[in-house]
């Protein structure tokens, strides 16, 4: 799977714009509601969001060849703290993206200790799909809490109107 540097930047821009649409809804949730177990891969909106952000941080650490904590998001107290970590990640990612090579190979070990390698572009494709999957779960969790999730999709960023 090949992706250009411009394509990688665009993919990350779209990914971050979707997060931007979600944060007001997430941060508007009462702390008790954010912690309430409603089901999903992770039991609550807080746990799901913390997982999503912590995974993006773990991959950014790998891109920057830095050590990473495996259970980073589990200790975050509330969505405001998750958002603070997200903002720091976003700043790190912007600096990294200036010199990022989508064809660069990243070697990594998964949670089971198995070694793999993938390109930055391939990993970013997976990161976006991972976030999309869990945003679907967040949408369900929010609805179970009586809230309305944002309606945002990647198509919004790539669809071009046609005349007539």
From TrEMBL:
Superkingdom of this entry's organism?
A: Bacteria
Name the keywords, alphabetized: Metal-binding
**Gene3D superfamilies the UniProt entry points to:** dinb family like domain
The cross-references to InterPro entries, in alphabetical order and at most eight, read: DinB, DinB/YfiT-like
Pfam families, per the entry: DinB
Question: Which GO molecular function entries does the Swiss-Prot or TrEMBL record give?
Answer: metal ion binding
UniProt binding sites for a divalent metal cation? 51, 130, 134
Per the record, the similarity remark reads: Belongs to the DinB family.
UniProt-recorded name of the protein: DinB family protein
Q: Which organism is it from?
A: Marinithermus hydrothermalis (strain DSM 14884 / JCM 11576 / T1)
């Amino acid at each position: 799977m090949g992706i250009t540097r411009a394509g990688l930047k665009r993919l990350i821009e779209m990914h971050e714009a979707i997060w931007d649409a979600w944060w007001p809804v997430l941060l508007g949730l009462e702390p008790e509601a954010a912690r309430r177990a409603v089901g999903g891969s992770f039991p609550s909106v807080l746990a799901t969001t913390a997982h999503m952000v912590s995974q993006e941080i773990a991959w950014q650490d790998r891109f920057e060849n830095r050590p990473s904590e495996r259970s980073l998001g589990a200790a975050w107290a509330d969505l405001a703290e998750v958002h603070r970590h997200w903002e720091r990640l976003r700043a790190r990612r912007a600096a990294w993206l200036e010199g990022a090579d989508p064809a660069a190979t990243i070697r990594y070990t998964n949670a089971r200790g198995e070694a793999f390698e993938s390109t930055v572009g391939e990993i970013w494709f997976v990161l976006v799909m991972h976030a999309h999957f869990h945003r679907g779960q967040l949408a369900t969790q929010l609805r179970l809490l009586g809230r309305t999730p944002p309606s945002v999709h990647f198509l919004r960023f790539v669809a071009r109107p046609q005349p007539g």
